[in-house]
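Entry for the shared binder. Reason: the reviewer on the internal report wants the predicted structure included alongside the sequence.
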Amino acid sequence: MSSTAVDVLVIGGGQAGLATGYFLRRHKLDYQILDREPAPGGAWRHGWDSLQLFSPAQWSSLPGWQMPETEDGEWPQRDEVIDYLARYQKRYDIPVERPVTAASVTRGANGLAVETDRGTYHAKVVVSVTGTWSQPFIPQVEGIGDYRGRQVHSAHYRRPEDFRDQRVLVVGGGNSGAQIYAEVSRVANAIWVTRHPPKFLPDDVDGRALFEMATEKWKAEQEDREYTPAGTLADIVMVPPVKEARERGVLETRRMFTRFTSQGVVWPDGEEEAVDAVIWCTGFRPALAHLEGLGVVEADGRVDTEGTRSVKEPRLWLVGYGDWTGFASATLLGVMRSARAAAREINDYLEGS
């Protein structure tokens, strides 16, 4: 096991890690990125086979270099995003070590120590950008432990063929639930289950318009004025598979079941139904287990921050976990603002220390 010292250590080499590295590089800081994945792509490496962005390439790009347009003019597919991230890292010569898993971050006399499966890293500053993919959330439903059928979270879903001719419940009213249900319903007897009726956006509203509306809402909040957007980043974008499901007349939902049985579920009206599989499209939580030793992870699973900087540990920054670490920071385009701010603050901190 080795020991390495750097000024700035970034934990996570996905889109947020690369964006942060881009700005650290511009400040000419001594930094290193650790990534648990064996190759570039971050969480995109684990997306389902047909996963497609709902924004065009120019609205899905990291700072400094626009994602190349797709050959067919369509919105980028998962593999095209992975290729872009790999080329982005190479283009800016961003130093990423793979695969390295960070187990814990602790305080030291001159900074923070990061224990990994490759040894110990010592840094004056740590930036955590581990995202949420490794912490899929499944709600606690009565009887879930008794159910003998297959359960898979969207984090591990791959293709509809795995469920051909089965009775399947797709649970979750967001974009992942809509897209996965749309393709599974073509090969399986599928039911789309949501707690609340999903909100569908007009056909001509894509991620580009959503980001513009979300940005205007953020600006309005900063300026203490009212603004009510026509849609939110949580609303369902009518990508081609979802439109096709609508044309088939199957884009309907059913209220959440009340409990599991060993063979299926019980619906609110008391009806029991046998189910072969459940696909949970119920979101994620921040992956912050490596920070627990610092005592900064709160009961809600987050870290209290001022901007992207930890309140309890001033040598720790967090980027890319969602709006609590910067507006739209969990998106390809939105992470730029918080990554730039974090790099600037880190540079000022190191110059003053």
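Summary line for the report: The chain has a mean pLDDT of 92.
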